[in-house]
UniProtKB/TrEMBL annotation:
Key words of the record: Cytoplasm, RNA-binding, Transcription, Transcription antitermination, Transcription regulation, Transcription termination
GO molecular function: DNA-binding transcription factor activity; nucleotide binding; RNA binding
Listed name of the protein: Transcription termination/antitermination protein NusA
HAMAP family: NusA_B (MF_00945_B)
Gene3D superfamilies: 3.30.300.20, 5' to 3' exonuclease, C-terminal subdomain, Nucleic acid-binding proteins, NusA, N-terminal domain
Pfam families found in the cross-reference section: HHH_5, KH_NusA_1st, KH_NusA_2nd, NusA_N
Lineage: Bacteria, Pseudomonadati, Gemmatimonadota, Gemmatimonadia, Gemmatimonadales
Subunit structure: Monomer. Binds directly to the core enzyme of the DNA-dependent RNA polymerase and to nascent RNA.
PANTHER family assigned to the protein according to its UniProt record, in alphabetical order: TRANSCRIPTION TERMINATION FACTOR NUSA (PTHR22648), TRANSCRIPTION TERMINATION_ANTITERMINATION PROTEIN NUSA (PTHR22648:SF0)
Length: 435
C-alpha cells in the first residue's frame, strides 16, 4: 500500500485534471476517510482528520469518551483501559486513538476518488444548467455522434460534456442524417433526468426558423427588428410576423436582405422550405389579412368574443388563401392566434357569412398513430402500454428498453420486440417509414 504522501500526490493530480481546488480536495479526502472509518467501526464513530499538504502527512484519530461503564464500544472506552494508556484520564475525558492511514487507506482513497468524480459530475450538471437555462430558443451547433431508433445524439461544439439530443418528433423527416456530420438545431427545452440535465434540440419547431433569422439578420440581433409570431409545418412552409422599433427600417426587407440573400440562406438550411415574411400588427383584422399572404384578402370581420376572423377573398384567390390541404389558412390562424374562416366573395353574398366555406384542418403529426394500428404489436402488449398511459406511436417513440420493462406484464423478450419494431419504424437513411 502506498504511503500517505504518494496518495496525496496522486489525488492532487486527479483533482488538478478535474479542476478541483486544493481545499475542496482535502474535504473530499476527509469525507472518504470518515466514510471508511464508519464502514469499519460503525456509523456512530467520531474521528478527526488533519491533512498536512506540505509534509504529505495525514493524521487520523478516533475519539472515544472515557466512562466507567461502557454502553457503546464505538464511541466510549472503559476508564481502566484508558488509564492503562495514561493514568491521568478521568471520566468524561476524550481519548484520542491514533489510526494508521495504511490500515484502511485503499478504501479511503477509493471513497475519495468516488467523491471527486461525483463532485465533478455535480459541478458539470450545475454548469450545464447555468449555461443553458436562459438560452432556450438559441441556435446550437455540433456533430451527430449517434443515431439510435431515430433519436439523434449530438456532441455540441462547445460544452461537449452536455447531453444533447434531437428526438424523432423534433426532426425534419425530409432530411437525411448521417453519423459524424455537422448539425445545427435550436434549444427547445431542458429536461431533468437521473443522469442530469438533457438538452432537447429541434429542427422541426418554428423556434429553429426564428433562430436562423437571428443568425442571418443583424437588425434582429441588435433588437431593432423583432419576430413577434411564427407558425410552421416542418419541411413545407413557415410564416413569421416581424415588427421594427425604428420607423426608418422595413422589418420585412431587413429579413429578406439584398436580392433575397438573407432569407435564401435560411431557406437553404431548411432544405427549400417556403417562408412567408409578413408585418406584424396589433390590429387582428389587419394582421389576418397580412397573415393570409400570398393571397389577397378583400375584407375581414372579427369577433373578439370568440376570437374568430371571417375573411372574404375573390374567387381567383380562394384556393391560394386556403393553400394545399388547408395549409395556408391553418398557418395564418396559428400565426395570429385567431380562428380564420374563409369565404369567396360569391359565397359571402349568397350565405351572408353564416356558414364558413372552409374550416382549418387539424394539424396532425404523421407519426402520431394509435398503438393498435402498429403492425407487429400484440393486442396484450397494446393493452399494457395503454394502461401505462401510452396510446400513440409518439408516446413511445423515445422510450428506452428499461422504460418498457418497468411496465407490469412486459417481459424482456417483449421489450426487445417493441424496440425492434420502433427501430424499423424510425429507420434513418432516407424518408421515414412512419408515415
Amino acid at each position: 500500500m502506498a504511503g500517505s504522501a504518494e496518495i496525496l500526490m496522486a489525488l492532487r493530480e486527479l483533482a488538478d485534471s478535474k479542476q478541483i481546488q486544493r481545499g475542496e480536495l482535502h474535504d473530499l479526502l476527509k469525507d472518504g476517510i470518515l466514510a471508511a472509518l464508519a464502514k469499519k467501526h460503525g456509523p456512530t464513530v467520531q474521528a478527526e482528520v488533519e491533512i498536512d499538504d506540505a509534509k504529505g502527512d495525514i493524521r487520523i484519530v478516533i475519539l472515544k469518551k472515557v466512562v466507567e461503564d461502557v454502553a457503546d464500544q464505538v464511541t466510549e472506552i472503559d476508564l481502566e483501559e484508558a488509564r492503562y494508556e495514561d493514568p491521568d484520564y478521568q471520566p468524561g475525558d476524550l481519548m484520542e486513538i491514533p489510526v494508521s492511514f495504511e490500515e484502511f487507506g485503499r478504501s479511503a482513497v477509493q471513497a475519495a476518488k468516488q467523491r471527486i468524480v461525483q463532485r465533478v459530475r455535480e459541478g458539470e450538471r450545475t454548469k450545464i444548467r447555468d449555461e443553458f437555462a436562459g438560452r432556450v430558443g438559441d441556435l446550437l451547433s455540433g456533430e451527430i455522434q449517434q443515431i439510435e431508433r431515430g433519436k439523434i445524439v449530438v456532441m455540441l461544439n462547445k460544452f461537449r460534456e452536455a447531453e444533447a439530443i434531437i428526438p424523432y418528433r423534433e426532426q425534419n423527416h425530409r432530411e437525411t442524417y448521417t453519423q459524424g456530420e455537422p448539425v445545427r438545431a435550436v434549444l427547445k427545452r431542458i429536461e431533468e433526468t437521473p443522469k442530469g440535465p438533457r438538452l432537447i434540440l429541434s429542427r422541426a419547431d418554428a423556434l429553429f426558423v426564428q433562430a436562423l433569422f437571428r443568425l442571418e439578420v443583424p437588425e434582429i440581433q441588435s433588437g431593432i427588428v423583432e419576430i413577434r409570431a411564427a407558425s410552421r409545418e416542418v419541411g413545407s412552409r413557415t410564416k413569421i410576423a416581424v415588427v421594427s422599433k425604428d420607423d426608418a427600417i422595413d422589418p420585412v426587407g431587413a429579413c429578406v436582405g439584398l436580392k433575397g440573400a438573407r432569407v435564401q440562406a435560411v431557406v437553404q438550411e431548411l432544405g427549400g422550405e417556403r417562408i412567408d415574411i409578413v408585418p406584424w400588427s396589433n390590429d387582428p383584422e389587419r394582421f389576418a389579412k397580412l397573415a393570409l399572404a400570398p393571397a389577397k384578402v378583400a375584407r375581414v370581420f372579427s369577433d373578439p368574443t370568440t376570437k374568430t376572423i371571417q375573411a372574404v377573398v375573390d374567387e381567383d384567390q380562394l384556393s391560394l388563401a386556403i393553400g394545399r390541404n388547408g395549409q395556408n389558412v391553418r398557418l395564418a390562424s396559428e400565426l395570429t392566434g385567431w380562428k380564420i374562416d374563409l369565404y369567396s366573395s360569391r359565397e359571402w353574398l349568397e350565405r351572408g357569412g353564416d356558414i364558413p366555406l372552409f374550416a382549418p384542418l387539424p394539424d396532425e403529426d404523421a407519426a402520431d398513430v394509435p398503438l393498435s394500428d402498429i403492425e407487429g404489436l400484440a393486442t396484450a402488449t397494446v393493452a399494457v402500454l395503454e394502461a401505462g398511459g401510452y396510446r400513440t406511436l409518439n408516446d413511445i417513440i423515445d422510450l428506452e428498453r428499461e422504460d418498457f420493462l418497468k411496465l407490469p406484464g412486459i417481459a424482456p423478450e417483449e421489450a426487445d420486440r417493441i424496440i425492434a419494431i420502433l427501430d424499423e419504424l424510425t429507420e434513418v437513411g432516407g424518408e421515414s417509414t412512419a408515415e
